[in-house]
């Protein structure tokens, strides 16, 4: 049973985990101190239009202006001339479409990363429980990519029944599969109500300001991850428990019984033994069950993943060991990408495999493991260098971006320069500065270890530079610096400063310590949205849950293909047509008498070609009609049966006459003997057709008809009666 575990005992971090037993399925960690802007809706002002980029920059309340490309600008913000050019199919220039100072309602598509500003769009999307509403994008709409097969057709039929406002688009989420039209309509009404509140708030103030903020991690997890397979929701905080109960009461009242307050002294995540699995999501190296390892490294351009066999000796030979390790790694990589929410370009270096079949097995394993991912994933093939490329959609800031900081010593490089190498580099730089004209002094500030190396092991070199250039070189051991930091200062002859070397220590490298009061002050100063809590105008529809017996009978009927237990209202709700004549799917199996008849006919000696499997395929008398066991169909079956069986066995696999269907078994008779057999077959047909009609006509369901016919045929075979088809 799957569980949703919500840990909120520490105010600095909220954690939501989806666990299946002791396996960690999904993880979401939110740090309240780090404000997330993705999916937030702002009213912004265009500050600059850049034709070379076909985009404009928008001020929306952040330190860096957002990036709004032309393709993400809705037509409602275009000028009249640009709208006419668009209608005529002409190319629109962004300078003619929008102008600086124009106010627009925008939504953040991508968070700020590094030096890049946020990516914006004017095509708003509001996510609900079952639907996603796009109020100004009527062309968009459809069904989630994760919904496939017959469910997709059913959902599309239900989507047509909704009363969608003009000019709006809808997407049905995975949670909307199997829901009644009333539930979908309720969710749509709530989203329309929310959009109307956003429009009203946008017209009340001037830009820039925050209109609507995406829900916190608790509400987002309940909205996005709550499925029927979630057995219970455990929360270890009273305040969060109350918030979750209020949300479920408004949106999903039928799931209130799954919500439980966890008050055991054992920590929640430790109780289900997933704390260690969460820590593996922060590690650079993840161990595999066979002894191998997956190493994950981040670069500016892409994410590189390397698979090492390490102590893996599971296979019989090196090829088998490589295959087993790669299969384990493919499953673990899909899980780590989902847990860490790593997006962008990913390159995987699998262990070399010579067999093409083994490479295809690894690719299929990775695709199968990626099916549970909500993000859009594109997977390539393993190249001749053993590399596989894939692209994963970035849904939110990754676990590393929200929980890690760049190392202040190496600036995220991962390694630093050695003491000897840095000291020698400082000697060369000091010599270069001292050789310049009008140089009065060169001051070198270095970490303690580097300064000690220069003043002791390289004292003679420093002295030779001073004597050759007649410029003094001062080495300052700065205890506030760490390798690879240093500073070289060149003073002119007129700038000579008479102060001791210990007074020259530069403290600019020291970062100020941020106190807890400053953090709390930043949290309280956070901008509040104009539209905060929006309650639905109507309560969510409540459906009576089916009993265990009803679920069992529904499963049983679906297992045998009958589906007769589904009511007409349920079928109309799901978009399925009402079945005709019994409600089961069509059966083409032969009755018992037909099977026994073909058996006797095959064993009966005859002249001509030897009867093989081709006789059984060509006999037409044993094939049941398609009318779900009606009496008329039974008569047709009894009439065709003996003739088809007997002639099929006599013909011995010969070709049927032209112009006649193959499954009738009617060949061209020759000789009086065959005529007598035909007359005899007719008598037998008349004699036993009523019994078969009586057996097969007892039930209108085709499955029951086939079973009764089989019993009748077995009884006749045991009693020695002639077989009928």
The overall pLDDT average reads: 77
Query: What's the gyration radius in Å?
Result: 38 Å
Strand fraction: 15-25%
Poorly predicted tracts of residues: 562-725
Number of beta-strand segments: 24
Class per helix and strand makeup: alpha+beta
Q: Ends: how far apart?
A: 50 Å
Task: Give the CA-based shape.
Answer: globular
Helical content stands at 25-40%
Q: What would you say about this model in short?
A:
This protein is of the alpha+beta class.
What does this structure look like?
With 725 residues, the protein is of the alpha+beta class. Among the domains are: 2-34 and 216-275, ATPase, nucleotide binding domain (Nucleotidyltransferase, domain 5), CATH 3.30.420; 283-403, Aminopeptidase; 419-504, Hypothetical Protein Ychn, Chain: A, CATH 3.40.1260.20; 592-719, no CATH class. Helices cover 37% and strands 17% of the residues. The protein contains 22 helices and 24 strands. The strands form 5 sheets. Strands 4, 5, 6, 7, 8 and 13 form a 6-stranded antiparallel beta sheet that branches. Helix 21 (672-696) crosses helix 22.
